[in-house]
Specification:
Radius of gyration: 15 Å
Number of helices: 4
Structural class: alpha+beta
Largest sheet: 5 strands, mixed
Order of helices and strands: EHEEHEEHHEE
Strand order of the largest sheet: 2-4-5-7-6
Shape: globular
Number of strands: 7
Amino acid sequence: LRLQDVDANVLIANITTTFKLKVEKYGGHIETILGAREATVNVDEMHFTNVIFNLLDNAVKYRREEVPLQLIVETKNVKAHSQERFQVTVSDNGQGIRREDLKKIFEKFYRVSTGNRHDVKGFGLGLAYVKKMVGELGGEISVESEFNTGTKFIITLPITKN
């Protein structure tokens, strides 16, 4: 890993701007809320970008056809482990994940069944990579999801005090 201090708000703004075209291509909308006051984190810029891109890409892949995709990427500061941390959430209004699948989604090669849809390609490696990278960066990731309502991924990282 090539770790360096970066302003995660700036990085996330760039990622969501780049991703906007893809979301709009499917008639969707992406909203970016940069609420974190302290956003300096020590990350590998390429891997951190890949992590966010992967979550956004999954939101597009697992959108509901009958509802326009709504994506919200939000940053804020939270208290965790008695320290202020940087948090980024990626929320969507997609298919959601069934409770029995939630426990396994970060496992290598695990893929949630998409029923009769065969257009969702992948090897089941994306979220395993996301979890591994977030861990390598000293962070934590969790997921909240409701089937047929949407999914929210929450990443918390240590702040680098300047």
